Amino acid sequence: MSTHPQHESGPEGHQPHPDHDRGLEFDLSTMLSRRSLGLVLGAGGAAAALAACTPGGTGSASQPASTASTTAASAPASSSASASASATPTPTLTRAIAECGVEIPQETAGPYPGDGSNGPNVLEASGVVRKDISSSFGTASATAEGVPLTFTLTLLDNANGCTPMAGAAVYAWHCDRDGKYSMYDSSLNNENYLRGVQEADANGQVTFTSIFPGAYSGRWPHIHFEVFESMNNATAAGQVLAVSQIALTQAACDDVYATAGYEKSIANVRRTTLQSDNVFGDDGGIYQLATMTGSAAAGYTAGLNVTL
């Protein structure tokens, strides 16, 4: 896979650790096969995978998102679970391991990583290790408002037979429903919400509870994340194994952005597609498009396979 260029404006974040070579010349059947490798798949078949790969084909705001998306990843064990603790692999994890092989594309961390690479460093702050990232911590007190979103990443080690990467750590962050990033926007300089670190459990899974991010001009709705070899590396802002992004489905975005509070996102998301996005556009996000289920009323869940 080719490393995606640093397209987002602003200072660059951590540089990706490895370089990959991934061609784009493959036919539809190959595309569907690789699509399934890059995601945590549920019970949906090839038609559902194709619909998820095509932003224009996932439905409108009036269409129930659960019919336009595949089943989200199963929730992992408690976020406080030890990496060495025993765990029974879920059917989703078992299938993910069997189909593992396509490594997650490397992406820019963007201009607002908060990892010390361009100024603010939330990773060394006490309290950053947490599952619920919707509120600020430490001396900050604000809570991000929006539709609830729970997202799970399953980390797999491609070099070791796609075994779950128990004990690895993930730092995840994203904008609020107004498209603003804590620690960087002038109105949020003293806040640190929508940022957090989790340690992968025995199934290689990390789960965060948050809010559905808004869409800002020039980007498809997304979530940033960095993967570290261990919790110690993460909280010390050590070497990053992978930097990438999760793309959210159009069906979910259409549903959420039709609700109060997300008015700014409606026009922004209409100006960008997965194919035209300056990060996901080279392959339409097929390796990073989350499987999603839920509704704006009940909240959404999302899942993504992250093969390293």
TrEMBL record:
| Occurrences of domain Intradiol ring-cleavage dioxygenases (ranges) | 143-218
Q: Which Pfam families match?
A: Dioxygenase_C (PF00775)
> SUPFAM superfamilies recorded for this chain?
Aromatic compound dioxygenase
The cross-references to CDD domains, in alphabetical order and at most eight, read: intradiol_dioxygenase_like (cd03457)
**InterPro entries given in the database record:** Intradiol_dOase_C (IPR000627), Intradiol_dOase_core (IPR015889), TAT_signal (IPR006311)
* Keyword annotations: Dioxygenase, Oxidoreductase
Region of interest (Disordered), residue spans: 1-24
Q: What's this protein's name?
A: 3,4-dioxygenase subunit beta
Q: Which organism is it from?
A: Pseudarthrobacter enclensis
Q: Which GO molecular function entries does the Swiss-Prot or TrEMBL record give?
A: ferric iron binding; oxidoreductase activity, acting on single donors with incorporation of molecular oxygen, incorporation of two atoms of oxygen
